[in-house]
Each structure stands twice: as C-alpha cells, then as structure tokens.
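Weekly modeling sync, notes
Attendees: S.R. (lead), two postdocs, one rotation student

Agenda item 3: backlog of single-chain predictions. S.R. asked that every request posted to the team notebook include the full sequence so nobody has to chase files. The rotation student volunteered to paste the first one in as an example of the format we agreed on. Action items at the bottom.

Example entry:
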Amino acid sequence: MISKLCHLLRACFCLPSKHSRPSSPIRRASHYNSKLRANLGIPDPVDRPQPHEPHHLTDPPTPTAPGEPPHPHILSSGRFSTENSAVKFSTSNMSRGELRELFNLIHGTLEHLPYAICGLGAIVDHGFRGRKVSGISILCPIESKDNVRAWASTRGYQLHGDSIGITTPNGLIRRVRIKYLEFGFADLQLTRSSFSNAFVLSIVSLLDNVAAGHLENKRRGDERALTIIANDVFFILDIIASRHTKVNTRFLPTFLGEPFFADFTARYVDARPEMARAGIDVSSTLVKHRTALQLREHHELLGQYGMQGDVVPQAKGQFEYMRDLKNSKSVYTLREKEKDITDIPPVPQLPKPSHQHDGKNVRFLDPNMRPSQSKQKVKNTREPQVRTSGVSNLGRNLTVPKQPKKIDRPVTDWI
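Predicted structure, as returned to the notebook:
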C-alpha cells in the first residue's frame, strides 16, 4: 500500500524538462496529463481530440473544410473600437420632437455618468428659436470621456473622431460631439431638460459657456461668429430677466471676468443695461475691474524699480479649458452654414468717436471736417461729467449719488 502511494506521488510530481516545455498553457496541460498517464500505466485514449490553441497567440489561422464554420478568433484589443470613417451625419434641421428623441437616447445611454448637454442644443432647450440645430454637443469631466465612448459603443452607436453617431427612430444619423472639461465640472449648474429626461446646462452656466465662446472667436478674429454669439448672449440675458432667475455669480467666472466683460460692454451699447435687467450687479463688477487695473499699473511701476506689487493672476473659468476628444480646444462651435446666414439682425454697437482729446489738444479723426464745423460739433456732442474727489470717471459712474437741485427762495421779510 505504501509503495503504491509513493509511486503515485512520484508520478504526480514528475515534471517535464525545461527544454521540452510547450509554448502555451493548453499544450502544457495536455503534455502533463499524457506524462501522468504514462507514469501510472494508464493508456492514452485513442480518440482524444487534439488541443486547439487560439490563433491570436502563436499559430496562423488554419483553413477549414468546405461546409464547416470558421474557427473563432478572439481579439486581444480594440474591444470597443467600432470606429467608422465612412459614417455620414445628417445635416437637416431637427424639429422639437426629433430633438426630444435624441435627448432621451443620450440620457438612456449615459444616465449613470456625469454629463450635460451644452451649446446650441441647450439654448434651444431653454426656448431659443433663432437658429436651427442638426447636431448637439455633450459635456463631461475629463475622467469620463473614455467611458462615454465605451457606453455608446455598447448601444451600437457609430464612433467617428470626436463624435458618436446616434440613429434616431426616423433612420437619420445625428452627430453628437463629446467634449470634456479639464477641471470644474462638479461646479457647474445642471438642470433637467424642459422636454426630455436629459441633463442640460442651466441658463446661468450656459451664459458662461457662450461667454467663453466669445473669447475664443475673438482670439481667432472671426467677427461674423462674434455677432452670432452676441445675439445668443442677449437672448440668454432676456430669458434670465423675464423668468426672474436668481443669478449666482460663482457660476459666471468667465462672463464676469475682465477679458469678456470689458470687451463685450465696449462693443455693444445695450450690454450694461441688459446685464442690469438680468440682475447682474454691473456697478460692483466695474469697480472690481477698475481696482484690478490700478493694481496692475502699480505692479508695472514697481517693476521698473525691481520690486513687485500685490497682483494676483486672473483665474480663468472652466469653460476656457474645454476640449474635444481630439484634445483640441472646442468651446462653442458654430456650424459652417451659420457663418453665412444673413437673417440675424445686427447688434447695435457703440458709436465710433469723431475726435480724440489728450487733455490739451483735440485731434479730429475725419480730415475732411472743417475746423469751424468741428468745434461746433464737439461743443454740441459734449456731455456733462460728474466730478468726484478720488474717484476715476471711467465709463458711467453708477455709484455717485445724485446732487440735490438748488431751490430759489423768494426775497422777502417773513413775519
């Protein structure tokens, strides 16, 4: 009995030599079983099937006999790589019903992920009717951008570059661009769609999204795009004012920042009144920017003498770090057709000055203007200024109290 047990142990622990080690786990298991049967005196089965090793490991694919199904091929990578370069997105305008179906399809795919519909699609959701939409954009944090593609692939949607193609019930493939924020997604204000279950940017966060688009198109020098974006800004301000929406300034870092606020209010004469009507404290924003300007000037003055001032670099909003899946900056994208549309009314801009005054002399910008006519026009267009001690009169000063009118008392003796 003891000898049989020792024989069994020797058979089990009899390993092959190093040089005869098979190339795969399947072949090694078959080799060990054959060696064990030989040591125990058990004959090998005659009709035992030969082990089959997957093609993607070592061997090239073996041809099959006619009428037999092909051998299975296991992919080692690219499980969700259903990239389709030949996909053609529909460019026709979507109705409100089609937009609702697309929003619900997106929410059904991404409801367990942080996302929000942004851009023109979100503006249309808030009631905008000025432009048509054929595709939409969704926004997510940087850590979720790959998960969005993976979950879209599980639904059978086509992947193409920075977008996914979602087939709507009418058979059209709609483009949904995927964008992400490098930081600050949790600080956005999101809300439910007005006609679907999807999440969209709130009207306040949407205002900051459009403001970032203004800065990007200004950097590119696209004046036509700036006009389109300006109409979007005024529409959002009107919606905020008409719905009496409470504006929380922490959701507007780009809109209230000096680069956008100074440029936009300098371009359009109705900018400050519309902002004030929407509940934005224009006066305090102007004071903050003037203070920052004075600090920068003081810092530059001290820098000439080798010293440094107390200047804090201006922090950018999260929408200014908005990118697509190609890692390109993509803030507020306009369709190619929108660059050529002519049905948008021009936004009234500030009038250009006819002269410049440097404190001593007046220089007229129009060389054809006569000196006598120039003096007369300057005299008629001159506006009274309110002088205050220690306060810069840059722009309209909204904090100076009104001076009481002087009352003329009658000259007489009172009893």
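Discussion: group reviewed the output briefly. Residues 282-303 form the longest helix (22 residues).
Action items: rotation student to repeat for the remaining queue; S.R. to check formatting next week.
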